[in-house]
Amino acid sequence: MINEHGSQSILVSGESGAGKTETTKMLMRYLAFMGGRSGTEGRTVEQQVLESNPVLEAFGNAKTVKNNNSSRFGKFVEIQFDKYGKISGAAVRTYLLERSRVCQVSDPERNYHCFYMLCSAPPEDVKRFKVGNPRSFHYLNQTSCYEVANVDDAREYLETRNAMDIVGISQEEQDAIFRVVAAILHLGNINFSKGKEIDSSRLRDEKSINHLKIVAELLMCDEKLLEDSLCQRVIVTPDGNITKPLDPDSALQSRDALAKTVYSRLFDWIVDKINNSIGQDPDAISIIGVLDIYGFESFKVNSFEQLCINMTNEKLQQHFNQHVFKMEQEEYTRDEIDWSYVEFVDNQDVLDLIEKKPGGIIALLDEACMFPKSTHETFAQKMYQTYKSHKRFSKPKLARTAFTINHYAGDVTYQADYFLDKNKDYVVAEHQALLNSSRATTPSPDGNIEHDRTTLH
Ligand SMILES: Nc1ncnc2c1ncn2[C@@H]1O[C@H](COP(=O)(O)OP(=O)(O)OP(=O)(O)O)[C@@H](O)[C@H]1O
């Protein structure tokens, strides 16, 4: 970078558990060492960059089948250098946090580390944040895995707090973050039964009422507003707004949607906070980018998230093909070098199948999302029809919604069942109104109530 005056990027890729995150951390440590300023006092940019790792891992990593500390998001770290080749700023960009994990986990996996850390926090924090045994929370007890070998969640909690200090997250902000984490756990314990009206729901029992109260207290919002946002939906019509009750199943879905929205916003807020605190250098001369992205995924059940991840990997593969095979070999030909041609499989056709506009799978999905009558079945039928002679696409025998793509790394069968909802990914208006109404109020030194801006909106 210094000799050739050019910015560079390092792409770390590989399947889950291959060692991408560990390699990225080593790269960052190396760059911090080479570009650090010796003898600088206080929190240096390089220290903050390194300490952003444990904070992001606490909220974005989880134990999976393949890896006890699997990153469930993609990350691009941009390290900025001044004209002396010293680190002068940094920025972290994250991609596609796996939101579904917040509400749905199966054996032998766990939810995000931060939930277990908070449950193992020192007694005063457990009391303050009203948490307890992880086995008592629905979002954690769907799997029987609570511990990870060689990981002490109690110690991790203290280390995460320490790393948060270093990256510039204040004690008040840390408390606000863990209040939100605790609120999500209690939210998952709210259950519903049939209400008096047809297709309506109400809180199931005293336990649910109690958890709702705690959520309202932790999120600093109104209890009734919280209950209504879970059990009702307002429909806007040309003649005015109509309030429609939700049946117990829909209320549960609404509860989970709220939990996922709050968690993903919390994660984004933490990333923003880290970036603001580390600071960017507008006068940086060059950058070194490090990309640690999800590897190619193929599970027993693959959904929209896997399609997005695998599409990203197809694009990276294409970039690799372009640079290593196409461009390099063209140069050899130009230079009349005697070499034997390296065969490679061009994956442009898979990329076109997925992302071409119009006509690709994503374009068909966007189109389906615009028609209120579309279902996952009509979407799947449309795909079967459109790609019936595409050599990279096939329909498994007897499938109604499943489809298989022949990726560069192998065949993956996807279930189209939740593709429409996942692609829409909207925030329910009632949830937004509820969260906007959340206010932390603390008495100011003169006794007046002040709005505390550390609340996470
Ligand atoms: N260089 C290394 N030395 C020793 N152990 C390593 C090294 N790299 C990885 N590991 C081990 O492998 C595990 C998985 O590595 P890592 O979390 O970096 O994988 P990953 O490719 O980022 O996976 P994912 O895509 O699931 O996030 C680590 O927790 C560690 O135990």
UniProtKB/TrEMBL annotation:
Signal peptide: none annotated. Keywords: Actin-binding, ATP-binding, Coiled coil, Motor protein, Myosin, Nucleotide-binding, Repeat. GO terms for biological process: actin filament organization; actin filament-based movement. Residues 437-457 are annotated as: Disordered. Residues 448-457 have a biased composition (Basic and acidic residues). The keyword ATP-binding applies. GO terms for molecular function: actin filament binding; ATP binding; microfilament motor activity. Residues 1-457 form the Myosin motor domain. Belongs to the TRAFAC class myosin-kinesin ATPase superfamily. Myosin family. This is Myosin motor domain-containing protein.
